[in-house]
Amino acid sequence: DYRGAGHSSKPATGYDKRTMAGDVRRLLVDHLGITEPVVLVGHDIGMKVAFAYASLFADGVAKLVLVDAIIPGTDHFRALLTTGRLSNSNLAHFFFHNARNGMAETLTAGRERVYIQDFFDRIAFNAGAFPPEVVDVYAKAYAAPGAMRAGFELYRAFDQDGYDNSELLSTGGRLRMPLLYVAGAESFFRTIAKDVVTDIAENGSLAVVAASGHYPAEENPEEFVEAVLSFCRESS
User: Fold this and answer.
1) Alpha carbons 26 and 24: distance in angstroms, whole number
2) HEC states along the chain?
3) Interatomic CA distance for residues 28 and 2, integer angstroms
4) Contact 148, 109 (CB under 8 A)
5) CATH of domain 17-233
6) Which end of the chain is more exposed for a tag (fewer CB within 10 A), N or C?
């Protein structure tokens, strides 16, 4: 669990993805003693952490798999958030989570399960991947003291992430290690998947997982795993 999630601590700060990439680095190198380059896989918020990790510690990443999300500070991120369309926006929560005066925490307190269920209802395609007992696990985790605030802080750091990523891309250029972007065939991110790869990678490829929305690993695990393993088996 990265900082703020699950059983990890929920500090007041440090939710910018550059800091969180440092957390992963300490886990891999200092605690687990892994010195060879790794295959790093990240989904959604984890995708943003994985991108920061690969940018900062490129020598430590053999291959990178990014799953169904967008990267702050890039052209595709700006385009997706500035469409001018308000109704039925799949990214409205980006703005709600950044509301002033802790409004997001106030309005979701005691309603964590309702709020989390809405994400699965809106952006999953295979609803059967998230039965009530699974949603209960997420709801219990986010009902813990400070958990929802920590979750919102991940989004409140997007502005800083954007500055950091723009700097990384302008100084170091696009990522050079082999990169696979995995999108759900029914995900709203599917339409900009090629733009994501173009913006951040020199050696990028795309895989689309059928019968899946925003959660390919849960909605169609067999096809998702095969896509990742096939990418890992390819020679660099």
Assistant:
1) 5
2) CCCCCCCCCCCCCCCCHHHHHHHHHHHHHHHCCCCCCEEEEEECHHHHHHHHHHHHCHHHEEEEEEECCCCCCCHHHHHHHCCCCCCCCCCHHHHHCCCHHHHHHHHHCCCHHHHHHHHHHHHCCCHHHCCHHHHHHHHHHHCCCCHHHHHHHHHHCHHHHHHHHHHHHHHHCCECCCEEEEEECCCHHHHHHHHHHHHHECCEEEEEECCCCCCHHHHCHHHHHHHHHHHHHCCC
3) 13
4) yes
5) 3.40.50.1820
6) C
Residue 83, pLDDT score? 83
Looking at residue 236, its pLDDT comes to 65
pLDDT, residue 235, reads: 82
- Domain positions in the chain are 17-233
Give me the long-range contacts of 157-161 (CB less than 8 A, separation at least 24).
157/15, 157/16, 157/17, 158/72, 158/94, 158/98, 159/72, 160/16, 161/16, 161/17, 161/18, 161/48, 161/52, 161/72, 161/73
Tokens of 78: 């700006």
Residue 120: the pLDDT is 97
Enter the pTM of the model: 0.97
The low-confidence residues of the chain, meaning pLDDT below 70, are: 236
